[in-house]
Amino acid sequence: MALKVAIVGRPNVGKSTLFNRLVGKRLALVDDRPGVTRDRRYADGAIGDLDLTLIDTAGYEDVTDESLEARMREQTEAAIEDADLILFMMDAREGVTSLDRIFADRLRKQHKPVVILANKSESRESGGGVGEAHALGFGEPVAISAEHGEGMADLYQAIVAASADIFVEEVDEPDKPIRIAIIGRPNAGKSTLVNRLIGEDRLLVGPEAGITRDSISVDWTYEGQNIRLVDTAGMRRKARVQEKLEKLSVADTLRAITFAEVVVLVMDKDNAFDVQDLQLADLVEREGRALVYVASKWDLEEEPQSRLAELKRLADDKLPQLKGSEFVALSAHSGRGVERLMPAVLKAHATWSVKVKTKDLNDWLAMATQRHPPPAVDGKRIKTKYMAQTKARPPTFVLFASRGGALPDHYIRYLTNSLRESFDLPGVPLRLTIKGNSANPYAEGGAKSGPERYKGDAKTAPRKVRKKEEEESRLPGKALEQKKTRVAKPRVIGAVKASASKKAGSSVAVQKGARGGARQVSRSGRIRTGQKQGPRK
Fold this sequence. Notes:
This protein is α/β, with parallel strands linked by helices.
C-alpha cells in the first residue's frame, strides 16, 4: 500500500497543479480563479522511487455555517484525517497570510508529520515569502514551483525524511473493478446517489446546481465485487456552455464516459427524456457502453406505476437502438428503490460482456434468412455465407455475404433486432459489420489472380522478323536510332499497269505518254520507248 499524502492549503496556492505534477496526468481541473476544486480527489502518483496515494483538496476557508465553503472545509478535514503525511502549501509571492496561520494552528492538533511548501518560488519576488514560512513552525520550508517542476528533488528529500517513522502496510493488488460512470444534467441527484450507495458523505452535495466540477472516482465493494463509481459534473446543452471552467468540466465528463464500462443516466422524473437526456443516451450508445436509466426523486411521484410505464414506453420509442435497457426508479434522498440499482448494473455488465458461439450464430443466421430472405439488388439476390463474433464489450459481429456492400440498411436493422431478441441482449449496443466482394477474385487484377505474366513475342514469328530483331539488337545505340528515324523511299516496280497499282495501293512510278498511254520507267530512271515485238500480221 502506498503512502497517503494530502495536499492542503488556502485557495489558489497551486494544490491541484502539484497534484497533476505528481500524478503525471491532468486529472484535476486547474484555473486562475480561486475555489475551482471542491471535492477531495484520490489518485496514485510517485516522486522518485516513492509510490504515493495523493489527495487533492479544496481551499481551506475559516467558516462554520451551512454555506458551500463550510461543506468544502469538511471535505478538507476528512482528507487530513485519512492521510499519513500532510503537504501544507502556501504562496511564496504573497507571503504568510492570516488564513495560513489559522490553518497552521489547525494542523498542529493532528499530530501528523507536516511538510511546509512555498509554491511559486521561481521568481525573485518570492524570496521574502519563503523566509516568512519559517514562522509557521513546521521547520525548513521547501521552495518549489509546481507549474514548472522546480524543487522536486528537495520535495523528495523532505517526504523521505518526514515519512521515515510511518509504517506502510503491504496490501495485495485488488482485482480489476467494474467502472461505472454516473452522468446526467445538473442538479439531478448524482452525487447524492453515490453517497447513498457507499453509505457515507463522500461527495459534496447541496441544493445548488452545478456543485460538482471534477469527475471524482470512488472505490467501493459490493457483494465481493470491486466497483469504481465515477461521479461527473452535470452536462447542459452545448449552446449554454460558455465559460471556460464549464467546458473543462464537460470534457472531463466525456472522458469518464469513454473509460467507463456501465453508464448510469440519472434523470429528473418530471423532465425525463428531454433533448439533453436523449443526446447523452445516444452518446453512450455510440461509445459502445452499457446503459442503465435512473429516474430520481421518485418519492415525490403521486402515481408511480403509470408514470413508470410511460417512461419505459418513451425510452423504447425515442431510443430504439437501446431497446430493453434496464430502468430503475428510486429516491437517493430517502433511499427508496436504491437497492434495485446495483443488480440492474451488474446484469447490464454481464450482457455487455457476453460471447456467442459461432455454431449458434450460424444456426440463427440460417433461420433468420429462411424466415426473411435478403432482398434482390439489381436483379441479383444477395447470399449470406456465415457469421462470427469478433469481440465483446460491446458485442461485435461480422457477417460475410456475396455483394455485402449492396445489403440494404433495413435488412441490417432486421438482423440486428433479431439477433438482440434471439440471444437475449436487451439494451446493449450491438455492432454488425457486413463484408463481401462482388468482383471475381480470380479475374485479372483480382485478389487471387496472381502476378501478371510477361507476354513476349511469339516463338512462331517468321524467320525474317526474328533475324531482323537480332540484327537490330547488335547495333550500337546511335546506329539503331538513325535506323529508326530513316524514312523509307518508295520502290519502283516495272511492268505494272496504273489501274492495277491504284487498286493494290502500291508505290509504282507511272508517267503518261504522248498518246495517253502509260509509259513505264526503268529502275535506272530511263523511260522505255517500246518493247521488242514481232511484226504485225
